[in-house]
Specification:
The complex is a heterodimer of chains A (about 325) and B (about 270).
Chain A lengths: L1 H31 L4 H6 L1 H6 L2 H11 L5 H13 L13 H36 L4 H14 L3 H15 L20 H35 L2 H8 L4 H23 L1 H14 L5 H10 L3 H29 L1 H9 L1
Chain B lengths: L5 H26 L30 H37 L1 H16 L2 H11 L3 H12 L2 H15 L2 H8 L4 H38 L10 H12 L5 H28 L1 H4 L2
The chains are: A mainly alpha (about 325), B mainly alpha (about 270).
């Protein structure tokens, strides 16, 4: 028990250091940007007509003249105390903006994550179990096609088919237009989330399916499966008893490691469907030079990614007896 | 019919992919002037024999725009993948050969870069370089080296301790000679395959970031720009503005994947004779 706590503690410290690095890197990149926040948000024409005092006021608001180090330390000090600053575009506390948007995105990502994981695992096992059959070739070809397809284009094609041609699904937003917030039902929300969730799920399948297939083939060629076959076990029983158990572990790790990709996909999908989630907010913050908001989103998304990796590491130890004992010795 | 062996088939497929990609790149450069021509007498035409991919709301020929965009994507992909691969080679081998704190720092850096979602990182780097061509090239090049660096690191670590390298050292060969005669021949195939397999990612991320508005400027006919512009016309039924350019991009990415796969087969002796 003790070594597990030490292992977890070490991982947590490493994670905190990485998050510090992420925030510093993101901050340095943003402050190195030659783009002037005043130009992008106010516009050249409006700036020309303003008085010097007004411009000075705006410069102060966007923090153009403060030295970067001082700004970063100020941000870090507030962040440790739980204050992520105020978004310059939305004029709300960053934590509040992120909280709202994350709620929208989280459902979308969670659904796509679970669904693509299960579907990918199933397809991978099927393909691996019937190697070189037409089903295997079909699944492999489909995975290759999906992984070569840009997510946003897939979203566009689904939008054309389901929203424009068939007209059965809405083309964007997370709630119906012209309905006040109180009367939006859960059904409305789900209805609007179908297309974005479907796009995200489709793109998430390829990686895990191909990986599971390779593993499955390795397992079926192993000595213990040969022995099981010699004992007269049926193919289904071999796959369920020997295949699934051994394939599940790497698949779980891979799926936790793919959180970063799902997040990246959600940025693109939300942009296409005008879905008010975290990804769309990140794009707005980036285009509008909203430093506190973009910094906040980067740190939060990195925390989610590192958290996923941490869970995968811990799960691996819990599920796999070999690693559990290895950790005890080390 | 005379049957060819695996090696010959792999070589033929590789050449096929290579020639097609070169043709697309060249055609895009030739057609780049035509891609900007506007003609309002022929706007919003659906695909027909004269305009294979149709025309847009300014009467620009979508076929030449798509080819120009693809050509641009391929060239950016080559540039960024090459830069990325060099970074991966340097950091990966430095990490394995120097060991100690250099190894820890580089591993930490890899974890750091992998921790930020790819798209977000490319966006941030592109912003730091002021968007546009430099921004997107820097963004993609500086964010794609991590997994190849890990491969290089573990490969170098492995051969560093391999019996034949240790024996060569005992026999009195200089470090330069060991590197040249025993390490590079082993690393090169892995590295080349990794390099080619970087292209698809680089091209897809370039298009994605441009689509979001952090990449190439809107006046350039890049695939990301074309698709982002098409969004305003989709609901009025102009499907060809989005479908064909995207399909062409998928084709190019598939060709690169095919190229990498065949190259791996040719370079890795074990997989050819499997």
């Amino acid at each position: 028990m003790k070594h597990r706590l030490i292992f977890t503690g070490k991982k947590l410290i490493r994670m905190a250091l990485l998050l510090l690095g992420v925030s510093l890197a993101a901050f340095l990149l943003m402050s190195a940007s030659p783009l002037d926040p005043l130009q992008t948000n106010v516009g050249q024409a409006a700036l020309g007509t303003m008085s010097q005092e007004q411009i000075a006021k705006l410069e102060e608001y966007w923090g153009v003249n403060d030295p970067p180090l001082q700004r970063y330390l100020g941000w870090l000090g507030d962040f440790v105390r739980g204050d992520m600053g105020t978004s310059l575009l939305y004029r709300q506390p960053v934590s509040q903006v992120i909280g709202q948007r994350l709620q929208n995105s989280l459902w979308l990502m969670a659904f796509a994550w679970v669904f693509s994981g299960l579907l990918g695992l199933t397809l991978g096992i099927l393909a691996g179990a019937s190697r070189e059959s037409w089903g295997d070739k079909l699944i492999r070809g489909w995975c290759l096609l999906i992984s070569s397809t840009p997510t946003f284009w897939l979203a566009l094609v689904l939008l054309i088919v389901f929203a424009v041609w068939l007209g059965v699904l809405p083309s964007g937003l997370s709630v119906p237009i012209g309905v006040d917030a109180a009367s939006v039902t859960l059904g409305d929300r789900l209805y609007h989330a179908i297309l974005p969730a479907l796009t995200l799920s489709i793109t998430g399948v390829a990686n895990i399916a191909l990986h599971t297939r390779e593993k499955m083939i390795d397992i079926l060629e192993s000595d213990y499966v040969l022995f099981a076959r010699a004992r007269g076990e049926s193919k289904t029983s071999i796959i369920l008893r020997h295949g699934l158990r051994n394939v599940a572990l790497p698949a779980i790790t891979l799926q936790f490691a793919s959180i970063s990709e799902i997040f990246g996909g959600s940025v693109l999908v939300e942009q296409v469907f005008s879905y008010p989630g975290l990804g769309q907010t990140a794009v707005n913050a980036g285009l509008g030079s909203d430093l506190p908001l973009l910094l906040g989103i980067t740190v939060v998304s990195a925390a989610i990614v590192f958290g996923g990796n941490l869970i995968a590491d811990l799960l691996y130890g819990v599920v796999d007896p070999k690693i559990r004992r290895g950790a005890a010795r080390a | 019919m005379k049957s060819f062996n695996r090696r010959q088939r792999a070589l033929a497929l590789l050449l096929f992919a290579l020639i097609l990609l070169c043709a697309v790149t060249a055609a895009g450069i030739v057609l780049s002037d035509q891609a900007m021509v506007t003609d309002f007498s022929r706007k919003n035409l659906a695909p027909c024999t004269q305009f294979l991919f149709g025309t847009d709301w300014m009467g620009r020929d979508m076929f030449s725009r798509t080819l120009t965009g693809l050509s641009l994507s391929i060239r950016i992909g080559l540039l960024t993948a090459a830069v990325s691969a060099v970074i991966a080679l340097l950091l990966g081998s430095a990490s394995a050969l120097l060991g100690g704190w250099a190894d820890s720092v580089i591993s930490w850096l890899i974890d750091l870069v992998m921790g930020i979602p790819h798209i977000l990182l490319v966006m941030l780097i592109s912003l730091a370089f002021g968007k546009g061509f430099t921004g997107v090239v820097a963004g993609v090049a500086l964010s794609h080296w991590t997994s190849l660096a890990r491969v290089v690191r573990s490969e170098v670590l492995q051969i560093k301790g391999a019996p034949y390298v240790l024996a060569a050292g005992k026999l009195g060969l200089s470090r330069g000679a060991i590197l040249r005669r025993h390490m590079i021949p082993h690393l090169l195939p892995q590295f080349l395959t990794g390099l080619v397999l970087l292209f698809p990612h680089a091209i897809l991320h370039e298009a994605s970031v441009t689509f979001l508005g952090f990449g190439l400027p809107p006046e350039q006919p890049a695939i990301g720009v074309i698709l982002s512009e098409s969004m305003s016309y989709l609901t009025t039924g102009k499907w060809w503005l989005a479908v064909f350019p995207g399909l062409a991009l998928v084709g190019v990415v598939l060709l690169f994947a095919l190229l990498g796969d065949q190259l791996r087969r040719l370079l890795d002796p074990a997989s050819v004779h499997e």
